[in-house]
Write a structure and sequence with these properties.
0% of the residues lie in helices and 57% in strands. It has 174 residues and is mainly beta.
Length: 174
Amino acid sequence: LGTSAINFVKLSSNISTSTVGNSVNNNTITLGTETSAVQLAIPPNYLVVGSTYRIRAIGSRTGTTSAGLTFNARIGTTTVANAGNLINANAIAASATASSFEYEGTFTVRTTGTTGSIIGSSRTIYGTTILLSTGTSTVAVDTTTTNYLKLSHLSTSSNADVWTIYVSEIEQVV
């Protein structure tokens, strides 16, 4: 076995509170609009075959009305929350039960270049419910330009339940 350098990159963000339709802590979820929770800028030609990234977000929801939320993991050439190729999505079903949640997604580069590709899967735990999203196909990524790996959230609820992300991070694990 030969030796190889392992690069480690990590981006963390702190508390991000969102209330559907209301501004809280300068982070607003507008009904039907994706909002970024965390993103990582990846320089041109940094993505290599086999490199793997993990995205995590941990938080809670308060309120007693039925509310749902979708986590979207994306990669693309812009920082806009809803732009870029969707690697995968996990939807927390509308529920009247407030609870804690954890999202974790793992994404691996399959090919590089202007027609590169990435594949991923994720898990979301909401209360006692576990949601799995296993990637079965790749999405396109141009690895020769700056890309943004990001996790966004989207609520389709019209109530004022509060979703709070306490910790979110993106790290390169391989």
